[in-house]
Write a structure and sequence with these properties.
Radius of gyration: 16 Å
Largest sheet: 8 strands, mixed
CATH architecture: 3-Layer(aba) Sandwich
Strand content: 25-35%
Number of domains: 1
Distance between the termini: 39 Å
CATH class: Alpha Beta
Order of helices and strands: EHHEEEHEHEEHE
Number of strands: 8
């Protein structure tokens, strides 16, 4: 297994969009065209993961000098359970070495239908070196727990990072760090 993270090409677009739509529920998805517009304008990076040239998945990143926000991570359905997610995270950590890396993941809500999957996802990120951070991220109507490597992310830092990416969206979509909310 030899994972590379490469800037996406137009030939990747169909695979990327299909995986993005299948991997994330509608309420957690930013419109694909907005993501790709931000990538084209240099406000994010759509990184395609490949193993010996074969499409494996992607990492969508929003970064500044200090922070790297792993906005989306997905592994192709046919490649899941083979260690590719871990390898992609390792490649992200290497690419953004010296930066604080963070992500937003579903809260551990015991009443959620996919509670076991949420716990499994959290455990995966812990195995990859992430820790739970003492805050949440609100994006639209969804509140996520935050995990990171390298230290906390303040509300001000998140706003400074996300504002250039979101632009006008911040007027219609609530995107901010909030106090930790415990779901039982």
């Amino acid at each position: 297994m030899s994972i590379t993270l490469e800037k996406f090409t137009k030939s990747d677009n169909k695979l990327l969009k299909k995986l993005y739509i299948s991997a994330f529920p509608m309420e957690e998805r930013c419109p694909y065209f907005i993501m790709m517009n931000r990538e084209k304008r240099g406000k994010s990076e759509m990184l395609v993961a490949r193993d010996k040239g074969e499409f494996i998945g992607f990492a969508y990143m929003v970064c500044d000098q200090k922070l790297a926000y792993l906005f989306y991570l997905a592994v192709d359905d046919s490649k899941r359970g083979q260690g590719y997610g871990t390898k992609i995270i390792e490649a992200v950590k290497k690419k953004y070495n010296g930066m604080r890396i963070f992500l937003a993941r579903e809260q551990l809500d015991k009443s959620a239908e996919n509670y076991a999957q949420r716990v499994s996802r959290r455990n995966f990120y812990i195995r990859c070196g992430f820790e739970d951070l003492p805050c949440c991220i609100k994006e639209g109507s969804v509140v996520y727990d935050v995990m990171g490597i390298g230290g906390i992310v303040t509300a001000e830092e998140y706003h400074k990072l996300i504002k250039p990416w979101a632009g006008f969206l911040l007027k219609i979509v609530d995107m901010r760090i909030i106090e930790k909310q415990v779901k039982e």
